[in-house]
């Protein structure tokens, strides 16, 4: 005999947390850090809210203190320099896409930021939230920034700490209270970049698989450097280094890249979900690679064929 | 420590005593009895709870009341002067677009914004702009038609 | 008897308020002192409640009432009363209600739910129909024999909740003929969630010893009667009123959460609001049922269908509900479209430990039409005949017999196929296609019906020249109550439809009605309204004839006047006549009533059926063109065309709106919307992230042709038009994908992963071992052995 409380399926209200819940709207980064430090495990930063406010459907309790960081000017700033772009963690997808629209080398990031979710969500959801939400495997900006060799800067009372995005992804779920993703630093290397994503509908979905690609070519048109990042296929986005190696030294050729991807795709273990079987996420990777590489030739990539 | 949340809703200065993480849609509906915005999915997919916050279409299910403090909020009830219809509302009525009506508060908010900010929007632009507004009844066609009509007569 | 045309593109009167957010749906209602309710639902699919301790919950802040199975002694159902309001000792599905609480705030109600202590002993579980039909399977209802039978004639046994059969002619002989090809096809379809934007919601109060239930429903009288039955009170103690309904699609064609609120209102003495969360709706919505189908035909080389047999298994979930009735429909959907020699069909509703299924727009029809049309294409391929030519040869025409032996009247489908040809041929040639995708097209036919049944209407003629129409009809969004009905009354009385007030449903004010669904509103309520308006007209003309000094038969009613025919401007205003009548003999009113004509079937053909034949057939021809991406399995619908049999189009614009919307809902069913059930018995898609509805970018404008003039007993020749647009969408899409890919499309929905599996030949051929090879072995009782109803 099992003795248990029945699982609750009722969740019409986000009101399941203690009555002493509060939201602190931090006016500055130090103020936010102080509040997070003092709040400890009971506190969490709140940026766009598009993930946290959906806690009820995940049957997750809300925290008792949220430190709202969306109004902190330096977290909302995008700084475009000659050698790098710095993006504050609370910059929204829409703002990022608008700012980078004219910078061709960031096409991958512009596409990621301007096609994720839906228009209203893009005006709310932040780049920092996209990177920091461990449970969100389908984040568009993660593979886009991985292929751009982005670093992140984590702020805390003890001072800033800069690390690669790749490393941040391994430590984000265990980030100590009081440490906050401050900004993302993306080097400018003049590469050609592209973001290929596969939603199940025409748009408005989280993509089932993402291939982000950044390459530089030599004078002969051969790939000098390549960065390929794969998102949504596994629980955490990652680089596809074997495919990168396969691309380097050759001219950009969609058919050959597709073949290489098909040969190498076995290294991915797809994640299962109620709507998409694991095998599918892996199976479509070569097609996304083909689209990405082909688009670098033509300068554009669509979400699907022929449009 | 909760001193109340000050909001300007359709031009009225209102104060909410809600828990600060309460979704704005519940404040509007349960506290202020502005039931136009509909909490349909509570996840930001359907758009039925869309309101304008400082001019931007925003799903009010995802906005905690505390973060709306000091904001200018316009709900579907407050889009037209003197109880009339604004251009998109009039176009939707003229096109016989409405069926059950539950999605329309959000549709109207999204399209009001589109009509006022993108006068040259094409059919494709309109379809793309509506990816966060789901309609279960109409199959969208009349809504798109109405948006084009409103743009043409604006 | 009408002088003014009822046909017009009359606008909806509810549009402006809906567009301004002023309309108060049930979820928007707020009464002084209102409490908020929540339901404790089971978290296991099968178990026994060993202990249910409410003491701690009852002491929680704000709690005003808690009710459980002890408060609801009755059982309800269709055909058989198998469904209690709360799980009584036994839990049969994940999500089954155990207790309900009313508290001052929603948060308090939730907190109190969490304080209920439940002890559940797990019991064996059957989650699929294959498991349910396996030898020795655990029974979902071990006591099935003891349930009250509400309709005699259905065969039942174990996990077979209901079985309906059709046998006409000698099928064995047909299949044994040497000159026939035998074609067999198997199909499996998943569930579909209505996702009505307004969830099921109710506000109940208890006043003067009666329940007042304000609810979001399509069936006020069902709510009245079923609530009374569950609560063990006379039905006259329940009043149901219906605010504007935010979408139904069949979801609200059955009782839902109304009795919980009613019980809590009585227990607390306060009004109680109960609104399902989206997650509750996703998990327990009375889905369109999943089904397994095997169909087999004996066809001559020149395309005559000599014999056909089929087995349809419909998952009813833990309780019989609508599926019991829907077993009837297979005869008219899977058994429809084509003229058949001999035929035998069995349709079985199967109990499983899953959330109960229910009604959904063109219930049973959408998947049976998918199966029938895919099977039809497989037949055409086998005998080497063009699929359109095969359809033309066999579609039901004047004098043809339906599956149950009813005689069809008029050639309708044939001319509709011609119309489709014309539409298709008029279309611009498609652009060049060199993008590597696979292209395909299909034209499919479908047979549906108008679910007639009883309706009542009263028309009160007001002295100011307006009329008030009182019915139990509900405006669910389809517009029938806003457009067709006032148009019918106005046309009869020579008024503007704006001058016809339409009373919203109130079981205390209007007579019995089956409900809004099955495409019956315009037909049944329309016929009752027409008859009531005609009575008013007769009375008015009598009074007018005295006033104008002309014989009633020389008078016409138009433009708000009663005049001598051919003499515009003569006569009197209707308001003057109504005022005179009111003074002389009291206010004028008329009543009307309607029910189905009861078209007869062939004696002995059917067993376990709720209706023997279809009073008003409705036909549809759909044409769809798709492109299939071979790398991803994504399907793009390139064009969609509909020729729909509407009888007579009273409001063509409104019907076109229904068709566009219904087709898009069908595209969702065919391509995007998937429900799966986990090993824990719970529906996996709990929200709109994973349950994908068509978005604006996923749809195409539907090209529409309204086919008028087919025979109908509906008022003014109408047929229901809102139900049928979804009917053959999955069929058209499925056949088009099969044509594009050359693969055997056997399952729905055709999501990109499923299509890619087909393209890669990685999807195993569907086999249905729980359907016996020999048709008769699928029956719990031989056809006719228990007597037909």
Q: Which class best fits the helix and strand makeup of chain C?
A: alpha+beta
Overall tally of structural domains of chain A: 3
List the quaternary state of the chains: heterotrimer
Count, helices of chain A? 12
Placed side by side, the strands forming the largest sheet of chain A appear as 5-6-9-7-8
Layout of helices and strands:
The complex is a heterotrimer of chains A (307), B (154) and C (789).
Chain A: E1 2-3, E2 22-25, H1 29-39, E3 43-46, H2 55-58, E4 65-68, E5 78-80, E6 84-88, H3 93-100, H4 107-115, H5 119-122, H6 127-132, H7 141-147, E7 151-155, E8 161-164, H8 165-171, E9 180-187, E10 192-198, E11 209-217, E12 223-231, E13 238-239, H9 241-247, H10 254-264, H11 278-283, H12 285-298
Parallel strand pairs in A: 2-4, 3-4
Antiparallel strand pairs in A: 5-6, 6-9, 7-8, 7-9, 10-11, 11-12, 12-13
Chain B: E1 5-9, E2 12-16, H1 24-31, E3 50-53, E4 56-59, E5 72-74, H2 87-94, H3 104-117, H4 123-129, H5 141-153
Parallel strand pairs in B: 1-5
Antiparallel strand pairs in B: 1-2, 3-4, 3-5
Chain C: H1 15-19, E1 35-41, E2 47-53, H2 55-58, E3 63-68, E4 75-76, E5 80-81, E6 83-84, E7 90-91, E8 97-103, H3 106-114, E9 117-122, H4 129-133, E10 148-149, E11 155-157, E12 160-168, H5 171-176, E13 180-189, E14 201-207, E15 210-215, H6 220-231, E16 238-241, H7 258-268, E17 272-275, H8 278-283, E18 291-300, E19 305-317, H9 321-326, H10 330-333, E20 342-351, H11 365-383, H12 387-394, H13 413-426, E21 438-450, E22 455-461, E23 467-471, H14 484-493, E24 500-503, H15 521-548, E25 555-558, E26 561-564, E27 572-573, H16 574-585, E28 589-594, E29 606-607, E30 616-628, E31 635-647, H17 652-672, E32 703-708, H18 729-741, E33 747-748, H19 752-759
Parallel strand pairs in C: 1-17, 13-33, 15-16, 19-20, 23-24, 31-32
Antiparallel strand pairs in C: 1-8, 2-7, 2-9, 3-8, 4-6, 5-10, 11-12, 12-20, 12-29, 13-18, 14-15, 14-17, 18-19, 21-30, 22-23, 22-28, 25-26, 26-27, 30-31
């Amino acid at each position: 005999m099992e003795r248990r409380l029945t699982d609750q399926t009722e969740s019409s209200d986000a009101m399941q947390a203690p009555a002493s819940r509060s939201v602190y709207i931090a006016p500055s980064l130090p103020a936010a850090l102080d509040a997070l430090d003092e709040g400890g495990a009971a506190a969490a930063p709140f940026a766009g809210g598009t993930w946290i406010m959906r806690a009820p459907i995940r049957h997750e309790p809300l925290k008792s203190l949220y430190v709202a960081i969306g109004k902190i000017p330096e977290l909302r700033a995008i700084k475009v320099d000659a050698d790098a772009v710095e993006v504050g963690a609370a910059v929204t997808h829409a703002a990022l896409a608008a700012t980078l629209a004219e910078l061709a080398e960031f096409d991958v990031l512009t596409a990621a930021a301007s096609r994720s979710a839906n228009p209203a969500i893009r005006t709310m959801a932040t780049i920092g939230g996209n990177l920091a939400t461990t449970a969100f495997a389908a984040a568009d900006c993660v593979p886009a920034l991985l292929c751009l060799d982005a670093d992140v800067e984590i702020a805390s009372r003890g001072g800033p700490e800069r690390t690669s995005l790749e490393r941040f992804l391994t430590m984000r779920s265990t980030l100590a209270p009081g440490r906050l993703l401050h900004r993302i630093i993306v080097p400018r290397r003049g590469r050609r970049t592209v973001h290929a994503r596969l939603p199940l509908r025409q748009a408005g979905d989280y993509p089932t698989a993402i291939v982000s690609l950044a390459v530089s070519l030599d004078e002969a048109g051969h790939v000098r450097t390549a960065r390929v990042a794969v998102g949504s296929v596994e629980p955490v986005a990652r680089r596809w280094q074997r495919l990168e190696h396969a691309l380097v030294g050759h001219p950009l050729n969609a058919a050959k890249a597709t073949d290489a991807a098909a040969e190498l795709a076995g290294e991915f273990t797809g994640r299962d979900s109620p709507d998409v079987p694991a095998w599918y996420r892996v199976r479509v990777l070569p097609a996304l690679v083909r689209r990405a590489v082909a688009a670098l030739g033509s300068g554009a990539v669509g979400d699907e064929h022929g449009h | 420590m909760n001193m109340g949340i000050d909001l300007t809703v359709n031009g009225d200065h209102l104060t909410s005593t809600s828990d600060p993480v309460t979704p704005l849609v519940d404040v509007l509906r349960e506290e202020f009895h502005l039931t136009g915005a509909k909490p349909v999915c509570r996840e930001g997919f359907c758009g039925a709870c869309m309101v304008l916050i400082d001019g931007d279409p925003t799903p009010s299910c995802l906005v905690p009341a505390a973060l709306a403090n000091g904001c200018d909020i316009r709900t579907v009830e407050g889009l037209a002067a003197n109880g009339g219809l604004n251009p998109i509302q009039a176009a939707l009525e003229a096109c016989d677009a409405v069926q059950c009506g539950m999605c329309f508060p959000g549709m109207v908010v999204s399209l009001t914004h589109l009509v006022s900010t993108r006068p040259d929007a094409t059919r494709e632009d309109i379809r793309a702009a509506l990816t966060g507004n789901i309609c279960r009844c109409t199959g969208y066609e009349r809504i798109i038609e109405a948006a084009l009509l409103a743009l043409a007569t604006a | 008897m009408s002088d003014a045309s009822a046909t017009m593109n009359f606008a909806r009167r509810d549009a402006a308020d809906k567009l301004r957010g002023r309309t108060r749906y049930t979820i928007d209602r707020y009464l002084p002192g209102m409490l908020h309710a929540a339901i404790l639902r089971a978290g296991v699919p099968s178990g026994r409640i060993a202990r249910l301790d409410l003491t701690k919950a009852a002491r929680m802040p704000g709690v005003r009432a808690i009710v459980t199975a002890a408060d609801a002694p009755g059982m309800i159902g269709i055909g058989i009363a198998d469904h209690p309001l709360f799980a009584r000792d036994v839990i049969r599905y994940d999500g089954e209600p155990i207790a309900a609480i009313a508290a001052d705030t929603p948060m308090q109600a939730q907190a109190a739910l969490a304080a209920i202590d439940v002890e559940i002993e797990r019991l064996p579980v059957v989650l699929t129909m294959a498991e349910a039909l396996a030898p020795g399977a655990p029974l979902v209802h071990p006591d099935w024999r003891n349930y009250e039978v509400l309709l005699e004639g259905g065969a039942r046994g174990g996990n077979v909740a209901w079985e309906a059969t059709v046998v006409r002619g000698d099928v064995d002989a047909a299949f044994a003929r040497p000159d026939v090809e035998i074609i067999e096809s198997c199909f499996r379809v998943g569930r579909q969630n209505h996702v009505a934007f307004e969830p099921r919601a109710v506000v109940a109060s208890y006043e003067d010893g009666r329940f007042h239930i304000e609810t979001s429903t399509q069936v006020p009288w069902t709510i009245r009667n079923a609530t009374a039955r569950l609560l063990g009170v006379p039905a006259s103690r329940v009043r149901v009123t219906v605010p504007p309904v935010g979408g139904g699609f069949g979801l609200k064609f059955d009782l839902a959460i109304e009795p919980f609120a009613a019980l809590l209102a009585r227990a607390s003495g306060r009004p109680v609001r109960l609104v399902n969360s989206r997650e509750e709706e996703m998990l327990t919505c009375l889905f369109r049922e999943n089904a397994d189908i095997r169909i087999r035909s004996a066809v001559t080389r020149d395309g005559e269908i000599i014999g056909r047999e089929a087995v349809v298994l419909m998952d009813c979930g833990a309780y019989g509900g609508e599926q019991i009735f829907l077993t009837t429909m297979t005869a008219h959907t899977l058994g429809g479209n084509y003229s058949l020699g001999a035929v035998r069909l069995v349709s079985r509703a199967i109990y499983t430990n899953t959330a109960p299924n229910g009604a959904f727009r063109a219930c049973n029809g959408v998947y049976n039409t998918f199966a029938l049309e895919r099977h039809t294409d497989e037949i055409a391929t086998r005998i080497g005949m063009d699929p359109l030519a095969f359809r033309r040869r066999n579609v039901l025409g004047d004098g043809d017999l339906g599956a149950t032996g009813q005689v069809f009247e008029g050639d309708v489908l044939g001319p509709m196929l011609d119309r489709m040809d014309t539409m298709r041929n008029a279309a611009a040639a498609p652009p060049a296609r060199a993008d590597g995708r696979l292209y395909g097209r299909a034209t499919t036919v479908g047979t549906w019906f108008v679910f007639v049944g009883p309706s009542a209407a009263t028309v009160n003629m007001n002295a100011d020249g307006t009329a008030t129409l009182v019915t139990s009809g509900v405006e669910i969004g389809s517009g029938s109550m806003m457009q067709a009905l006032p148009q019918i009354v106005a046309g009869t009385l020579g008024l503007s439809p704006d001058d016809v007030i339409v009373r919203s449903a109130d079981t205390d004010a209007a007579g019995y009605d089956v409900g809004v669904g099955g495409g019956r509103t315009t037909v049944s309520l329309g016929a009752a309204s027409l008859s009531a308006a005609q009575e008013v007209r007769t009375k008015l003309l009598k009074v007018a004839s005295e006033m104008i000094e002309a014989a009633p038969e020389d008078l016409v009613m138009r433009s708000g006047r009663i005049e001598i025919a051919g003499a515009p401007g003569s006569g009197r205003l209707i308001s003057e006549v109504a005022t005179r009548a009111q003074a002389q003999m009291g206010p004028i009113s008329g009543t009307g009533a309607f029910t189905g004509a009861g078209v007869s079937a062939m004696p002995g053909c059917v067993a376990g059926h709720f209706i023997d034949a279809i009073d008003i057939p409705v036909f549809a021809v759909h044409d769809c063109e798709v492109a299939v991406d071979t790398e991803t399995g994504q399907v793009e619908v390139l064009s969609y065309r509909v020729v729909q049999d509407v009888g007579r189009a009273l409001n063509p614009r409104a019907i076109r709106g229904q068709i566009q919307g219904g087709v898009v809902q069908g595209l969702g069913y065919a391509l995007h919307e998937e429900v799966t059930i986990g090993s824990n018995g719970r529906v996996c898609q709990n929200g709109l992230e994973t349950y994908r509805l068509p978005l604006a970018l996923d749809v195409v404008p539907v090209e529409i042709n309204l086919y008028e003039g087919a025979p109908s007993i509906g008022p003014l020749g109408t047929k229901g038009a809102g139900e049928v647009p979804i009917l053959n969408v999955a069929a058209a899409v499925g056949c088009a994908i099969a044509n594009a890919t050359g693969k055997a499309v056997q399952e729905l929905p055709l999501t990109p992963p499923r299509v890619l599996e087909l393209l890669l030949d990685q999807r195993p051929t569907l086999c249905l071992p729980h359907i016996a090879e020999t048709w008769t072995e699928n029956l719990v009782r031989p056809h006719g052995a228990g007597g037909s109803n």
